[in-house]
Design goal:
Layout lengths: L9 H13 L3 H14 L4 H14 L3 H17 L5 H9 L11 H16 L6 H26 L10 H11 L5 H14 L6 H9 L8 E10 L4 E7 L3 H14 L11 E7 L7 E6 L2 E5 L1 E5 H38 L5 H16 L14 E10 L1 E11 L2 E2 L4 E7 L4 E8 L9 E2 L3
Parallel strand pairs: 1-11
Antiparallel strand pairs: 1-7, 2-3, 4-5, 4-8, 6-7, 8-9, 8-10, 11-12
Helix pairs in contact: 1-2, 2-3, 3-4, 4-6, 6-7, 7-8, 8-9, 9-10, 11-12, 12-13
Length: about 425
């Protein structure tokens, strides 16, 4: 048992992948991900999400969309609970359960499906954007139901990128401006600090996409190193103990005093961004900088905290049942009259607890923020220069490319800057 304990968690296995990807060694990161998918079957779905990010970064949005859709469908199926897995999780730890993703990951899968599809024709981007909102409504309704029983408040961010993409797609049709306004209102209310939200809303209210002879360029940028899931030792909170009592009353016919000792649990830590935004020059003229439309780290942390009492409660129940099992064995073998047996069983119980690891499986290559800039441009080909900005000054190596703008149409770009340099390709929807 002691040999099984230690640092064998998904978070530790993913460290080299994150380091390679964020420092531009994308091919090496991709190779490691594929090897881990074969080797670590229980982590395969989480690793496939990271592979989707690599596919998107390296210019294969069609493959990224296919991978994301596969994981989305599997996680939806795995929301059903398996009784055998639940029992095994109480004997060992939550890594015994098939990974079904955290709530924030389920919303972001649909968000990245919309982004991937935008870069690959955009036929289904609107549907994916709406799915992201529907999934979040479903999650909020479930958590609010739990919180009513505990008499506590629910407060976390919503992802504004879904309605933002929905509005952008509808604007290109030059119709449905009532729907466009509703989506723009969601963006303004969900991401109150988004710089361009009110300007977008005003444009929607006037029913305008662009001036005649012009089109629109949307530049999306995945900025910074995203949130990470790590193992921590936590003392049970009052909210968690309420859930513990509920679980124990369901699985036991007798009363059992739950443990209040620290237990191992997964927590989500926010990421960081070294750059503040990206400056966009078109035909040698600076036309603006990107602004944050979705703070991925903040969303992930807040959504994870909303579920944390349940996660902590499961760990407490597991520890309580293990201790109860050891006491029952001691009683049955008469360990009280045999000091040697008592000591041996006590050590066995400690070893049993030592084999526990927090379930740190999760999406490891998310960005810290998703930023966007909308620019209206004359029809034709334009030369672009994208410059990372730190504290108002450009930094790193600029990215140059050309884009084709069509009359009354949208063109989409997607770049990735984990630190101060672009990684992989800058995708263009017109390619």
């Amino acid at each position: 048992m002691l040999a099984l304990s230690g640092c064998s968690t998904h978070a530790h296995r993913l460290e080299s992948v994150r380091d390679d990807y964020y420092t531009g060694h994308v091919e090496k990161a991709s190779k490691t991900i594929d090897e881990l998918i074969v080797k670590e079957k229980q982590e395969a779905d989480a690793l496939k999400l990271d592979r989707a990010i690599v596919e998107l970064t390296t210019g294969n949005p069609e493959k990224a969309e296919q991978t994301l859709r596969e994981v989305r469908d599997r996680l939806d199926y795995l929301e059903q609970k398996d009784a055998r897995e639940q029992i095994l999780a109480m004997v060992k730890d939550d890594q015994s359960i098939a990974w079904s993703g955290d709530d924030y990951e389920k919303v972001l899968i649909r968000t990245f499906l919309a982004i991937s599809n935008l870069m690959n024709g955009g036929e289904d981007a609107t549907a994916y954007a709406l799915q992201a909102g529907e999934k979040q409504n479903e999650i909020i309704a479930r958590i609010e139901q739990d919180r009513r029983a505990e008499n506590s408040q629910l407060d976390f961010k919503r992802v504004a990128l879904g309605p933002y993409i929905h509005a952008a797609m509808l604007e290109e049709r030059h119709t449905d401006y009532d729907d466009i306004e509703r989506s723009r209102l969601k963006v303004v209310s969900w991401e109150t600090e988004f710089r361009d939200g009110k300007l977008d809303l005003e444009r929607a209210r006037h029913g305008r996409h662009s001036e005649p002879g012009h089109g629109v360029l949307y530049f999306f940028c995945m900025v910074g190193r995203g949130p990470t899931k790590v193992e921590a030792s936590e003392v049970p909170t009052q909210a968690a103990m309420l859930v513990v009592d509920r679980i124990l009353s369901e699985v036991l016919k007798q009363e059992l005093t739950p443990t209040v000792a620290p237990v191992k649990v997964p927590i989500v830590l926010p990421g960081q961004s070294l750059i503040s935004n990206v400056s966009v020059h078109v035909d040698d003229e600076e036309l603006g900088t990107t602004a944050t439309i979705t703070d991925v780290s903040q969303f992930a942390v807040q959504q994870s905290e909303a579920n944390f009492p349940n996660v902590l409660a499961r760990a407490v129940v597991r520890r309580t049942l293990k201790k109860a099992a050891m006491y029952a064995i001691k009683d049955n073998v008469g360990a009280e009259s045999a000091p040697g047996a008592d000591l041996a069983l006590t050590l066995a119980g400690i070893a049993w607890e030592a084999t526990e690891n927090a379930d740190t499986r999760g999406w490891g290559l998310l960005p810290d923020q998703i930023q966007v800039l909308r620019i209206e441009l004359p029809v034709g080909e334009h030369a672009l220069e994208l410059n990372p900005v730190i504290g108002g000054a450009t930094s790193g190596t600029p990215k140059t490319l050309t884009v084709q703008i069509e009359d009354g149409r949208n063109t989409y770009l997607l770049g990735t800057i984990p630190d101060t340099e672009f990684v992989g390709e800058v995708l263009t929807s017109s390619q």
